Amino acid sequence: MERLQVCILFVVILHSMTVEFACKGQNVATSCSASDLEVLLDFKNGLNDPENRLSSWKGRDCCKWRGIGCSNATGSVIKIDLHNPFPVDSADVTRYGFWNLSGEIRPSLVKIQSLRYLDLSLNTFGGIPIPRFVGSLKNLEYLNLSRAGFFGTLPPTLGNLTNLQYLDVSSEFSALTVESFHWVTALVSSKYIGMNQVDLSMVGLSWLEMLNQLPHLKELHLSSCGLSGSISYLTPVNFTSLAVIDLSFNSFNSTFPSWLVNISSLEYIDLSNSGFRGRIPLGISEIPRLRYLNLALNKNLSANCLELFRGSWKQIEVLDLGSNKLHGKLPRSIGNMTYLTHFDLFLNNIEGGIPATIGGLCNLINFDLTGNNLTGGLPEQLQGMEKCDSKKPLPSLMYLKLSSNGLVGKIPGWLGQLKNLQQLGLASNFFEGPIPASFGKLQNLTNLRLSGNQLNGTLPESTLSEVHFKNLRKVKILDLSSNSLTLNVNPNWIPPFQIRNLDMGSCHLGPSFPNWLKSQKELKFLDISNANIDLSSNLFNGTIPLTSVSIELLDLSNNMFQGLIPQNISKVMPDLVFLSLSSNDISGEIPAIIGKMTLVQVIDLSNNKLTGSIPSSIGECSYLKALDLGNNTLSGSFPSSLGQLIQLQSLHLNDNKFSGGVPISLKNLSSLETLDLGNNKLSGKFPSWISDGFQNLRILSLRSNSFSGELPLGMSKLSSLQVLDLAENNLTGAIPTSIGDLNAIVQEKKSDESLVVNLKNQFQKYTKTLSLLTSIDLSRNNLNGAFPVELTNLHGLIVLNLSGNQISGQIPENISSLHQLASLDLSSNILSGVIPSSMGSMSFLSYINFSNNNLSGMVPYKGQMTTFTVSAFEGNPHLCGAPLVVQCQNGNSDNRTVLENDNSDEFPDKWFYFESHGDEHISVS
């Protein structure tokens, strides 16, 4: 596309010009006129030029000034080119800003009526509007004001420029807007129109018909313009010269514009991420000059691959159809697309295997089939390589991405012959066997992802052997996690590479920490490849190793590390954002220096043997989002400095020996979603302020402490709450009726505790597996009063446990409205009355316990209730009927015969935990 634009640019500049430019360094026949000189000096005075770019603008001959072009015949100024030569996306980005011009565009410029070329692009004109008087420069043929910091409404006076062939007013962040598009129809000479990121949302639905009146148009760039509506039909099509059309990143709710297939001059089509739907017309493959087609990210475009890819595709070089609804199998005929360089079909529904004929795609650089339904194995041998000069398969391939499919079998050895390969993604498939030894020949490989397969074997025979690694000097990202691979290298081995992203989780690297990692001085996050060190779920032992590197993500969880947390951890790893040492054998106190980890967002030290108190310096970790110190032996009171962690979303301090009350400073944690203080020695009044400022709180667990007092009346303010666990405390009073207004449970939402960690503009999800799904547990307290009928409003409730209290009254008749309920425990209360007959319809109910109450009448033994045994009802002397041994007299539901084995003084100790690991299941502990 760039070559095409350059060609058009030269055509625009040279076409119809009968004079020549005279620029600096040329011998000109005539000096510039005094009037032009005066205008240019005034123009210069209006500009801010911090880099002194206009230093040559002195003397009497302006035709020799930098950026000025004159006519040899008349000396008149016909060209002003002051574009920024160092835009922000150029190689030398350090110059951007210094070379920016700013200030104002003086209206005297309109006096140079001979001007035919004006380029002020890529500067920073500080939010000023494009001057209306630009439309008075009627001889302009080339106007480029793109990305120059202009703001406001595009002046319709630009329609006066009837000689204009090239117009680019592309903006940034929709800083420019267009209220009416009618003026565009007057640009009858236009060959190039660029308005990327100009807000066109107000131009109505006729913009396409207006542009269709420009028969000479060759390129149309309207990306990210806020366009909407349907453009499915256009009759007649006057774009007979159109070569480039870019309508990407708009919001068309439209079927594919099939009229495009009738424009034989098209070379470049970009309709990506623009809301198109329906079938991709097969005729698009027959456009004879088409080199570039991008329909990615529309999500609802469909086509059968066998039909679509059997077309001609004579000149196609870039074909991106990712993230749509393509289906069917890839035909062997894709091997005929010999000009193809980029073939992107990620996130579709493509089935079957990969044809062996891809071996003839000699120019292919990028091949991406990530996230499809591919099955079978990769071809053992490729076909068509005789078409390539090298006679080798895929000689140009640099990026091969086949992750997240259903591919099986062994990884073929020909992958090791792809000498230019830089990235190889085969993760999340079903490959088995060893990694081919030929991978050691991939000298340009920088990124290797094989995680989530069934690979096995000892790595000295494959990729990670010392012998093979000597050629992999460029490897920066290595992900072999979730396989059954074993690393067995010399303890003194020093790799030839400096790895930046290493994930070998669940590989066999132990028992001792691999010394070769200490030589890796670049272990840090550098790019979008999710760089981290993740050595979890191994069998390491010894002390925690630290090396002098700028690591951002360190995960050593699920090992057997011993000893203390290093006192110098914040000095050695100053850039640390994610720290997980959970599930090891780490002892001692949490060092106070942890407060110096000023960038850290996640600290997980759970499931260790830590002692002592939480250092008050923790409050200095101002970016902290998740703190998990659960399942240790920590003690003392909570430091009030915890209240300084205002970004905290997840706080787990459960299963320790903390004492005292909950500091009121925690009230400042308004972003908190999870608060787990269960199984400690906390005491004092229930913190009533919890119901006030925690609208995001989804999980609240204070179980197994010694809190007293009543539940606050404003419980309904916890509108996001899905898990409430206050069991085994000393709470008193009635259950507030407002508990029936917990909106997140009423709406049947499911909880998932997770947060996003920002690693230098890369986002990684941090998730903790929940021990409870949507539930309320108030058991083993001293609560009294009637069973609140409002609880039956909580239609999403899965677990309800009110056992071991003094709750009275009857079970509400409409309790069956809790149709998601799986576990109900009302045992050891003083409930009376009958068991509602409607409970037989509660099809999800798998556990109930009504024992040790004063319930009476006949058990409604029907439907789901027939799955429960005697133990669920015993200890109610006035209940009768199956499954109890006591029969109701004459069918009378008021039978008062006492059960022989009344265990009313025995407290049941049952609780249900729900785990989310794929399929949900219930287990009893």
From TrEMBL:
One of its GO terms (biological process) is defense response to fungus. It is a single-pass type I membrane protein. One of its GO terms (cellular component) is plasma membrane. Pfam families: LRR_1, LRR_14, LRR_6, LRR_8, LRRNT_2. Residues 34-71 form the Leucine-rich repeat-containing N-terminal plant-type domain. Keywords: Cell membrane, Glycoprotein, Leucine-rich repeat, Membrane, Receptor, Repeat, Signal, Transmembrane, Transmembrane helix. InterPro entries: Leu-rich_rpt, Leu-rich_rpt_typical-subtyp, LRR_dom_sf, LRR_N_plant-typ, LRR_R13L4/SHOC2-like, RLP23-like. The keyword Membrane applies. Residues 313-529 form the Disease resistance R13L4/SHOC-2-like LRR domain. Belongs to the RLP family. This is Uncharacterized protein. It comes from Solanum lycopersicum (Tomato).
